[in-house]
Every structure is written in structure tokens, then in C-alpha cells.
Write a structure and sequence with these properties.
This protein is an alpha+beta fold and 352 residues long. A five-stranded mixed sheet has the order 5-6-1-7-8. A four-stranded antiparallel sheet has the order 9-12-10-11. Strands 3-2-4 form a three-stranded mixed sheet. Helix 12 runs antiparallel to helix 13. It is globular. The termini are far apart. Keywords: Cytoplasm, DNA damage, DNA repair, DNA replication, DNA-binding, DNA-directed DNA polymerase, Magnesium, Metal-binding, Mutator protein, Nucleotidyltransferase, Transferase. Belongs to the DNA polymerase type-Y family. It catalyses: DNA(n) + a 2'-deoxyribonucleoside 5'-triphosphate = DNA(n+1) + diphosphate. Its EC number is 2.7.7.7.
């Protein structure tokens, strides 16, 4: 049987590693990329030195500094991160045209056409170091799920291979919360059902998993049995365009929130214009001062791309779903169900 050769390349603490590379005073020290506690910021990335204190991405900065009082906060430089990411993708494309970026710092590569996937992964890792002075971890296997799991094994600067004959045994020992695509809530439910590791999941029939978890149960059945037919897609379609803002002080009035939404939808309009997209579904995100978060969506019959269309809809959702006596720390707006503005003939986009 012929197997595909799939790589998952994941940069090691990408944002934080760039800051340590570019600032000698940050090296070998706990570094967080993100907003400072007094700005009510959150951790976008943490160096491995910071992770030893239990600091991780999406953690409020005030908690990060409680766990490590001497942690260094670095302001994000996304223009630099994007530039380095493009350097890395250029390296990928020297080995295969089948590159599927997942974010600035990770991608799947189908290298089935290469003689040795392992040798190719080593070469890519070496060239990344030579070009960027950064390290990456690589997973090598027969499908996307296994390659993703493999890249996490020996971080940082790791290389791990899961051969076809070893796939089922590797999955059998994998803790259920480590499965890519199984979040904390699903993991808790699985543990309540006695599913602690992959071997437990392998004992379940597809029909029983669907009965307990819905359609996604089919995916759980397949990956538990080392089956993943998803192709590496170099033309991955963007699913949404959005923007959000966190606030130095909680917003407590509708007027203040409406004013904030005006700025946010202007940003979304600019991003839609740049992407040449329009969308049918608007989603409003509200995060309260106690970190509870809700999202509410509405789909319309004509695609949106202008702030004049998105603003009133976002305000209506906010007014309808906002809790009494609110204290809001973050608002966001995203447009989904995207279509190409060019395909719909909306030439006025080019005039905005």
C-alpha cells in the first residue's frame, strides 16, 4: 500500500523567539509578547522560559506577571512576524507546491514526491535556522492528524516520525486531551465516558461515537484508527474577516460601546476591502469584565462589506443581547460566509 508523506512544521514559540533573536537582553529570559497588565492585555505568545512558570497564550497579562514577576513584556510586531513567515514559506515551496499554511508559524506540507520525507524535514529545519536564526519542530507521518501530533513530541527544535506500522500504537498511548481537535469540554465528556487515552477511543464503534458526539464522532473514529484522508490544500479558503478591541477601562454604557463598534466595523471594512471579500453573516463578540464571553450572529440576504451596513447590525445585536448593568472589556465583529466581491460584480469596492 502506498502512503502519503506529510510534514507538519511548527515554529518554536514563534513571536517570542523573534523578540529574543532581535533583542539580546531578552535571551534566556521569560518573555511574553502581548499587552501589559496595566493595559489589560493578554499573552499572544510566551517564550519557553516563561512557559516554565505556567504562562501560556491567551492568559491575561495580570496573571502572567503574578506567576512570574520578572517576566518581560514585548509589544507585538506583526509586520516583522509576517515577513519572517514569508521567508519560511519560501523555503517550503522549494520542496513542494503543496503547502497549506495554518497560521504565520505552522503549515502542512505534502512531500510525497520527495524520495525521503525525513531527509526533507531535516533540510527544511536546517534552512530555517540558517535563514532566520529560529528553530522549528517537524512531525512526519502518513496523514495530517498524525503529522500534527508528531510535531508536538520533541519540542523545541524537534523531529519525530510516526511510521505506518507504528500509528495505532502511538495513538493508543496518547492522552485524549492531546488529540488535535478535541477541546477541554469534549475531553471532559470523554473522560466521563471512560475514554482517557487513544486506546479507549479505539474501542468505540463509529455509531456509538456519533450517538454521543454528533457528526464529529465520525472524525473521532477515523483519527483514532489512524485514518485521515484530508488533503494538503494550498488554496485554503479564508472563513471569516474580523477585528476586535480590548479596552483599558470597562465600557459600561451603550453609547460608549456603540462608539467602540464604529471603530471596529471601520477596521473590518478595510480588511474586507483588502481581501476583496464580502459576507452574509455578522458575528458580534462580547467579553465581560469577569472574562465570560458570548457570540451572537445574524445572517442577511445580501452580502455586506461596508461599515454603514455592518454597524447598525452589530449595534442591534449588542443592544438585544447585552446583559443588564454590563461591564465590557472587549468587543469584536467578524464577517463570515464570505464570497468574492469580484465574482458578484461589486465594482464600487475599488472606489472606497
Amino acid at each position: 500500500m502506498d502512503f502519503r508523506k506529510i510534514l507538519h512544521i511548527d515554529m518554536d514559540a514563534f513571536y517570542a523567539s523573534i523578540e529574543q533573536r532581535d533583542h539580546a537582553e531578552y535571551r534566556d529570559k521569560p518573555v511574553v509578547v502581548g499587552g501589559r497588565p496595566e493595559q489589560r492585555g493578554a499573552v499572544a505568545a510566551a517564550s519557553y522560559e516563561a512557559r516554565r512558570y505556567g504562562i501560556h497564550s491567551a492568559m491575561p497579562s495580570r496573571i502572567a506577571i503574578q506567576r512570574c514577576p520578572h517576566v518581560i513584556f514585548a509589544r507585538p510586531r506583526f509586520d516583522v512576524y509576517r515577513s519572517v513567515s514569508e521567508q519560511i514559506r519560501t523555503i517550503f515551496r522549494d520542496y513542494t507546491d503543496l503547502v497549506e499554511p495554518l497560521s504565520l508559524d505552522e503549515a502542512y506540507l505534502d512531500v510525497t514526491g520527495c524520495e525521503s520525507a525525513i531527509a526533507t524535514a531535516k533540510l527544511i529545519k536546517q534552512r530555517i535556522v540558517e535563514t532566520t536564526r529560529l528553530t522549528a519542530s517537524a512531525g512526519v507521518s502518513i496523514n495530517k492528524f498524525l503529522a500534527k501530533m508528531a510535531s508536538d513530541v520533541n519540542k523545541p527544535d524537534g523531529l519525530y516520525v510516526i511510521l505506518p506500522e507504528d500509528a495505532m500504537a502511538f495513538i493508543a498511548t496518547l492522552p485524549i486531551e492531546k488529540f488535535h481537535g478535541i477541546g477541554p469540554a469534549t475531553a471532559r465528556k470523554m473522560k466521563q465516558l471512560g475514554i482517557e487515552v487513544g486506546a479507549d477511543l479505539q474501542c468505540w464503534s463509529e455509531s456509538d461515537l456519533v450517538a454521543n458526539f454528533g457528526k464529529v464522532g465520525r472524525h473521532y473514529f477515523r483519527v483514532a484508527n489512524a485514518q485521515d484522508s484530508r488533503q494538503v490544500n494550498p488554496n485554503r479558503i479564508r472563513k471569516s474577516v474580523g477585528a476586535e478591541r480590548s479596552f483599558a477601562e470597562d465600557l459600561c454604557t451603550l453609547d460608549a460601546m456603540f462608539e467602540a463598534l464604529t471603530v471596529i466595523v471601520d477596521d473590518v471594512e478595510a480588511r474586507l476591502l483588502k481581501a476583496k471579500k464580502m459576507g452574509y453573516t455578522l458575528t458580534l463578540k462580547i467579553k465581560y469584565a469577569d472574562y465570560r464571553q458570548i457570540t451572537r450572529s445574524r445572517t442577511v440576504t445580501l452580502p455586506m462589506h461596508q461599515a454603514a451596513e455592518m454597524g447598525p447590525l452589530a449595534q442591534a445585536l449588542l443592544e438585544h443581547h447585552l446583559e443588564p448593568r454590563p461591564r465590557v472589556r472587549l468587543l469584536g465583529v467578524a464577517i463570515a460566509n464570505l464570497v468574492s466581491a469580484k465574482d458578484l460584480g461589486y465594482q464600487q469596492l475599488s472606489l472606497l
